[in-house]
Each structure stands twice: as C-alpha cells, then as structure tokens.
Amino acid sequence: MPVRVETYERLDEAARALASSRTARFLGGGTLIMRAVNAGDQSFDTIIRARDANWSAIRAEGDGFVIGAGVTMAAVVASRDLVFLAPVARSVGGPAIRNMATIGGNLFAASPYGDFAAALLALGATVNLAGSSGRGIPIDDFLRDRERHATSLVQSVSVPRPRDASAFRFVKVSRVKPKGISLMSIAALLPQMGGRLQGARIAYGAMAPTPIRVTAVERALEGQSLDIATIERAAAVATEGIDPPTDALASSWYRREVAGVHLKRLLSAERR
Questions:
Q1: Which helix (H) or strand (E) holds 16?
Q2: What is the reported pLDDT for 150?
C-alpha cells in the first residue's frame, strides 16, 4: 500500500491533520514509524511531518527547561543545560539512533524501550500537546492514558531541573553493552532536606507496558536518611505491586530477582 507524506509548517496544523485521520501517523525521528513502514504495516497510509523550529528547541523556563518533542537524544547529550539528562540520552542506542530518536517518540515507545520516558517520569515532567490550550499533562497521567493520546501530537515536555545534581540518578540494565535493549531501567529523584529524603520519585522502564512509578519504594524512602538500612528496606520492596513482563530478553521471574540488586546499587551510588 502506498504511503502519502504531508508536510506542515506549524505544529498546530500538523496536530489538526493528525487528529482528523485514523490512518495517519506523525514522523518525528523515524525510529518507530520507519520500522513499521519497512515491516509493511497496513494500519496507516499517511505520514505527517512538521517543520516548526519550536519543535526541536530547548529553552529555560522558571526552575527548569522546556524541551521540544523533536529534540533528539544526540541534542540532549550536546546541550550544556541538560547535563543531568545526558547519561540517559547516551544510553539510547548507538550514535545513528541517537541522531534520530526524539523525546516525543520515546514517550510512545513500547516496552522494553522508553528509557528516557522513565527518566522524565522520575523527574516529574509535564507533557505539552500541540494545539492544546491550558496546562500541560503530568507525565504520570500521560503515560497511564497513553493509548488515548495516540492521535495527539506532543509539542514539548517541561522538565524541572534538580536542585542538587546528585539527587537524580539513572541506570540501564542490559545484556549487551553499551547499546543493548533494556532488561530494565531505573530512574530516581532523591531530593533531601535536612539529611532526610523529601518527595523521592522512583521510576522503572521495561517493567510494565509503560514506564511506571514504584510507590512501595518511594514510601520506604520518604522521610528517611539514605543510609544502608533505608536502602535495604527499599530494595526489599523493589517489585511490590509490579508484574514484570516476560519477553525475549528476560523472564518476569528474572526481572523480579535482579530489580532489588540494581535498585540497591543505584541508591548506594555504586557504579558497575
């Protein structure tokens, strides 16, 4: 089936075109959609593009940054402002993939992909849709209702800057280094006040259909000092309330077994 390409100058125009068609898909970096094209996916017959410069811009706003959904992983790595996110972006594929893969596309990437989305979840980002007036969508809500947003066009994400650089941590666990697919990824925001954790956010990637918060771990950490005893308690509930998937990379059992180990290393700031 032939595929038609439509190009728009403005994101709101592209958003309207996308929303009005059940057989259109938006082309960002192409790592997802071009794979579907090459596989002969018959679910769409139109590809929509946009040339809007704002879609690939990074700008400071308030206590954080607004990152255009078209910003690539390579651009994140190169940005002086987004140093705290560079290790996450650097973990996404090899150089060719990082030059194509976008922030917006990663939000929709199916497990076991979506490592950057897990980091945004831990940071408490907000997702801003093109053509939408009003406040953005908390990333927790966006990921929970991701299927409902399948015909929406993400314009940008608003990301708070961690006040303490060491408060944000990330690890990707894979069998192939350095650019293998995730068995799991863990992102943690660990702000402290007076030596006690306040508002900790822990997120997993590749442990559910979408990146998820690990509320049992967050409860174990809240109000505690980040000492050995607290880390042990957090690791003990690393998969409480979670049913990890079994796929070609690992079984659900294996993911359960290793989650606490890698969480403990991350919280202890150990490096493999």
A1: helix 11-19
A2: 81
